[in-house]
Design goal:
31% helix, 20 helices
Length: 679
């Protein structure tokens, strides 16, 4: 028999037990004798002496097991309750949460919502073609998930297998992820802009026998040949038995005996028995770039990841039941996993799937979508905000944004000018901007301005406050903890949390070397940070993005922030390069605002003046190269590694540029750098 820890109900099958389900949301009520803290988080009523959100954060760190046990019991539906909250040793890379517990992630995301509100909208698919959005209720999404799950099982997918998903952001991609979770298979979502070689490398490492894709992708009015890419990739992937193909467009593509049309799922039953999974079974692999260039397949597991994604989605963004949550990332990245799929659906939210680009068919696309879909929380990347800033306020002001309540930023530190524009223009000065810091490795947001007391300040460009259960520390070059404020160091996290990655697939030694050995007993993030006199955190950039000029250490993000404050500048990227005298020099790549007319000589004077004034003379760029665009991934991250290779004249090591949003940008930079070098 299957036992629910919440209701202690017994049932002959999991499905019948789930029909009695548990509510997806938690009433914001004050228990007798409680305080506003319990209204904010009901579990806090059981935390003795905790009053206020700062005290709640302190309790979550100092009484970590009590905090996470209470939250896990309240917010997840368990098939079998856990007996051990955590068994972790960061120095050895051992991370285990909620052992003994069994659950099913798809049940937590779908079945319990269907029991309460079957016709609530789960997904709004904002297709590339503006104004053609499609809505899916929780009932429809559950049925689609079950059909896909049954199709996968019929073609030999078993518990513990790994399915590779190479699809754009769309409802069927979400159903495919949840179908894997339902039947106990792991998923490996590969961003649908990666090349055949990059895809093949990830399929081989994950040892997938099944790939799910589409005939074509559509983004920004352009068509991409997804099936063709998969066909090329699987030629070097002997483990692949079947490729499932869905149709995004009417265009027919060549099919082989290996290929299966996803239309086959319509023959499948709408009920699929959910697998009972251990808390620490693998939920998904997600590959992220490593310093060696070889992608790392980070492993996230069931219970801890889902709990952390759900808790951060609710509290960082002040999400309330009935809100429309608009994360405009791609499902191929961790942001899409945590804040399009798992976090919102576990909370019973309506979540937006954005298939297009910020400037298609015009630079008002985001804000027209906000008006039409009545989005309440908007979560995007700083690079997109800077791009739209370049086009001016008129594209924002054209549309009604009164539905917006919270604005979020993700992917890299947001510079002050972009933050202020986002807050003042997009949010009309009334929406808090949450600049969130986290990584694929962390599973969810770790440092952000919210949650905090309603009247607490938010400082532009700062991530600020650690989330519940997160204890950040700064380390010096000797490996000692820096206890004072107004100081900078290597950012580590002092104790484990449920959402963190457990290992690197097939390479736990690399996981330990990368994250656990640099500062034994601490999780090393690879980022540098500054802690202000008030104890707020500001991310200063990757530690390999720290430049040492004549003994002065400075983060590239700090210089970029100042360069971007120049009125003529839309965005910039700064790197360090080898300098005979200073050790390292500073090279700035600068994109001007649209239709901006300024002499190069005057711009250089302005930039050097403002950098000298805001930071120091030693931080002034030695070289400034004006470019039309910067090399970026499709998710909007600036590829500083590529810029370094160009400046070092190491063009043979540029790697696979097909993953860039516009590979032609690199050639322009190579030619521009060559001209500077000849001067």
């Amino acid at each position: 028999d299957i036992v629910f820890s919440l209701g202690r109900e017994k049932s002959s099958t999991l499905v019948s037990a789930l029909r009695r389900g548990v509510p997806p949301s938690y009433p914001h009520v004050v228990r007798r004798g409680g305080c506003n803290t319990a209204a904010f988080m009901p579990e806090a009523a059981g935390f003795e002496g905790v009053s206020g959100r700062a005290a709640l954060q302190e309790f979550s760190v100092s009484n970590s097991e009590d905090f996470w046990a209470a939250v896990a019991r309240q917010r997840l539906s368990w098939i079998r309750p856990f007996h051990t909250v955590q068994d972790c040793d960061l120095s050895r890379g051992r991370i285990k949460w909620f052992q003994g517990g069994m659950l099913n992630v798809s049940v937590n995301c779908l079945d319990r919502q269907v029991h309460i509100c079957p016709e609530r909208v789960a997904l709004i698919w904002e297709r590339d073609e503006r104004g053609s959005e499609v809505r899916y209720t929780y009932r429809q999404l559950l049925e689609m998930t079950c059909r896909v799950g049954n199709l996968l099982k019929r073609h030999g997918v078993r518990k513990g297998d790994c399915v590779t998903i190479y699809m754009p952001t769309c409802p069927l991609a979400v159903a495919s992820m949840l179908a894997c979770a339902r039947i106990g298979a792991a998923h490996n979502v590969v961003f649908a802009g990666f090349s055949a070689d990059a895809l093949a490398e990830r399929i081989r490492d994950a040892q997938s026998s099944i790939v799910i894709t589409m005939n074509q992708g559509v983004r920004g009015g352009k068509v991409t040949e997804l099936k063709k890419t998969v066909d090329t990739a699987v030629q070097s992937c002997p483990t692949v038995r079947h490729v499932f193909v869905a149709m995004r467009t009417e265009t027919l593509v060549p099919m082989t005996d290996r290929d299966v049309l996803m239309d086959e799922m319509l023959k499948e039953d709408v009920v699929c028995e959910p697998a009972a999974m251990n808390s620490e079974d693998v939920l998904f692999l997600l590959y992220t770039s490593g310093s060696t260039g070889k992608p790392k397949g980070l492993v996230h597991t069931q219970a801890g990841y889902l709990l952390y994604a759900a808790l951060t989605q609710r509290y960082v963004f002040s999400y309330h039941d009935g809100d429309v949550f608009g994360c405009v990332a791609d499902i191929g990245w961790i942001t899409g996993h945590s804040y399009i799929v798992y976090g919102p659906l576990a909370n019973g939210a309506t979540t937006v799937l954005f298939e297009s680009t910020p400037v298609y068919p015009d630079p008002g696309r985001y804000w027209e979508t906000v008006e039409r879909l009545k989005i309440n929380q908007f979560y995007g990347a700083p690079t997109a905000i800077r791009l739209l800033l370049k086009y001016g306020d008129q594209w924002v002001n054209k549309y009604d944004r009164s539905s917006l309540k919270t604005l979020g930023s993700v992917g890299e530190p947001i510079n002050t000018e972009a933050w202020e524009w986002y807050h003042r223009v997009v949010g009309e000065g009334r929406c808090p901007v949450v600049d969130t810091w986290w990584q694929t490795e962390t599973g969810g947001i770790c440092i952000a301005p919210k949650p905090s007391e309603p009247d607490e300040e938010i400082v532009p460009g700062m991530a600020m406050r650690p989330f519940f259960g997160i204890k950040p520390v700064l380390m010096d070059t000797e490996g000692k903890v820096l206890t004072a404020n107004n100081t900078s160091g290597a950012l580590c996290i002092a104790q484990p949390w449920p959402g963190m990655a457990r290992t690197i697939h097939n390479n736990h030694e690399r996981f330990i070397e990368t994250y656990c050995q640099p500062y034994p007993g601490y999780f090393f993030t690879g980022d540098g940070a500054y802690r202000s006199p008030k104890g707020y955190y500001q991310i200063t950039g990757r530690l390999d993005d720290v430049i040492n000029v004549s003994g002065h250490r400075i983060g590239t993000a700090e210089i970029e922030d100042v360069v971007n404050q120049c009125p003529a500048v839309a965005e910039s990227a700064v790197i360090g390069y080898s300098h005979d005298i200073k050790g390292q020099g500073i090279y700035a790549f600068v994109v001007l605002k649209k239709n901006m007319k300024i002499k190069e000589e005057d711009l250089y004077k302005q930039l050097n003046s403002v950098v000298s004034e805001k930071i120091a003379k030693y931080a002034c760029p030695d070289f400034i190269l004006l470019v039309k665009r910067l090399p970026k991934t499709r998710s909007g991250k600036i590829m500083r590694r590529v810029l370094r290779k160009v400046v070092e004249s190491d063009l043979d090591s540029l790697g696979d540029l097909s993953t860039l949003d516009d590979p032609a940008a690199v050639q322009e930079i190579i030619e521009g750098h060559a001209k500077i070098s000849m001067k």
